[in-house]
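Chain A, query sequence.
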Amino acid sequence: MEPFENISPLDGRYIGPDETMRKRMSPYLSEAASIRYQLKVEVALLETMAEFGICSASVPESARKAAEDITAKEVFEEERRIGHNVRALVNSMRKRMPENERGFVHLFATSNDILDTSRTLAFRDFASEILIPDLIDLVSVISGKAREYASVRQIGRTHGQYAEPITFGYALSLYVSRIGGRTVALERAREDLRGKLSGAVGAHNALALHDPMNPAIFERKHLERLGLKASDTQVSTQVIEPEAMADFVFQGILAMSAMANLADDMRHLIRSEIGEVKIVDGATRVGSSTMPHKVNPVAFENVKSLWKAFAPRIVTVLMDQISEHQRDLTNSASSRFLGEILAAVDYAARRLGGAMKKIQPDEEALGRHLAACRDQIVAEPLYVILALSGHPDGYGKVRSLLKDARESESTLLQAAGKDEEAAKILEGIPPHQAKVIDDPTSYTGDAAERALHTCDEWEKTLGLLR
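Chain A, predicted structure.
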């Protein structure tokens, strides 16, 4: 199918046309991948049976060979014929195996033993091999920029208003920490994903016919073969306890939220009337169908827009925690979209990383905005200095001085110099405080040091995940 014939924009516009990205994601998140992982679980089940002496070693060997030839198209055609997806997979395996071995296929298992466990395996692998490395790469790009501009002064903003000076590197280091933190949390959630082989109502009914004393041993051995574990007490319904998967997807969406916030920050700083960030891109891109001069921050806008589409899906994930009694099918369709969420998170990480490589601060604009608000940003350090010098109401004093400055159409520092009380205090302040009063743009605290320290910490932490 051509990309433009797909229904989902992920396939038709974002991931599908990008051959590299599609090839990276397809082995884990596609329908074909789902079939391959289900076959893997079915073969592992037979391997465990052979280990327990329930069947001969030839049975899993036959199953492995059968699985190599089974295609997603074949399974889907069989599903259309009989009306059941997992039984279609089982039938496709059975018909390729010797008649005396067919009866062992899917023995002890219910559909969700295979479906839930295979989804866990696919998502664990995708997170380990694709998503987490891409998030680490994104953090590395942001960290590199934060280091480069750790000491470049910028006016900080709160409520969209000038606040106090920081540095551009410090502003970026916040996202090193936020996205780095979600990457670590996603890895923890990935490690906590569970599998199951506990049967139709979760009580090991079928396995108890083999081992009435401790049927859970078989489940444990089977999951260990796949690198998984059951719930801590090995209790379930027909489906795995849903909280671990919900937490895993939630951490992915939280990472995407932090990415969207960074994208939005960059988009605003690129705005014509702010212009503190510029895009350095040698490519010729069209920014408007009618305005030839336009170059838009489209990658940043795209990341935020995708977040708007996928963040609300966490509600569906939470709703999928509810299944009536031992099992119903109200999460059957909705859970099929989980892979789309993960794909979107990864796409956003790669898109944002590429965009961040192309930005740099416009130091002229940064300096211009700092200069424009010098008389405003000195208000806080002035009040703090007055308070540290023993003034009983430094904040109130500065408010009064600001009123005097407005009425006399002078600056705050000029008003302070004319005020006997304030002038006397300022004459005796130490050099590091005097430096801030003389140059309020230097009032950046430990922004540069914090930026570098944050980069050091997260580069070390995330390096351990590689």
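The two ends are 35 Å apart (CA to CA). DSSP finds 22 helices and four strands in the chain.
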